[in-house]
Amino acid sequence: MKVTGGCLCGQVTYEAEIDPERVAICHCTQCQTHSATAYGVVAPVVEDRFTLLSGALKTWVKTADSGTRRAQAFCPECGTRIHSKTEDGSPGLFGLRVGTIHQRAELTPKVQIWHRSAMPWVDDIADIPKVKTQPNLAK
């Protein structure tokens, strides 16, 4: 599937070819911290099927819960995470952040990984009341 995407400020844009059957939710504690939320959602993409159309990416290297060194690529202006890549294995394979993909509504995750670290409430999210837009939190 051909996808397009970019960062929040618009400085970084890209196009890529992904397999929508490999989209995954990652519950590892580092994804929780790095995304500032309960989990990350990624779509694997082979490096030669990813094209940076505009902007430049800054990289920061972390050691994952698994012990693997992962290079995190993000927009240097707004900080939006674009992808991550293993430094010492799986050559040329990125974990493209689904939230940056314009076609993200079409990408239903097929697996949840590192579920042992999942927040205890994450499986019950359908039961949480829903509000269509931003509520007035001052009330």
Topology at a glance:
Elements: E1 2-6, E2 13-17, E3 24-26, H1 29-35, E4 40-46, E5 50-54, E6 58-63, E7 69-74, E8 81-86, E9 93-97, E10 111-113
Parallel strand pairs: 3-10
Antiparallel strand pairs: 1-2, 2-5, 3-4, 4-9, 6-7, 7-8, 8-9
Q: How would you characterize the overall build of this protein?
A:
The chain has one helix and ten strands, in the order E-E-E-H-E-E-E-E-E-E-E. With 139 residues, it is mainly beta. The chain has a single domain, classed as Metal Binding Protein, Guanine Nucleotide Exchange Factor, Chain A. It has a seven-stranded mixed beta sheet. A three-stranded antiparallel beta sheet has the order 1-2-5, with no helix packed on it.
Keywords:
Metal Binding Protein, Guanine Nucleotide Exchange Factor, Chain A; 10 strands; 5% helix; mainly beta; seven-stranded mixed sheet; 139 residues
In short, what is this structure?
It is built from 1 helix and 10 strands.
User: What is the CATH architecture term?
Assistant: Beta Complex
- What is the rounded distance between the termini? 44 Å
- The overall number of domains is 1
Number of helical regions = 1
- In terms of structural class, how would the helical and strand content be classed? mainly beta
Strand content: 35-45%
Highest-level CATH class:
Mainly Beta
Q: Roughly how much helix do the residues carry, as a percent range?
A: under 10%
- Outline type: globular
Order of helices and strands: EEEHEEEEEEE
Q: What does the average pLDDT come to? A: 91
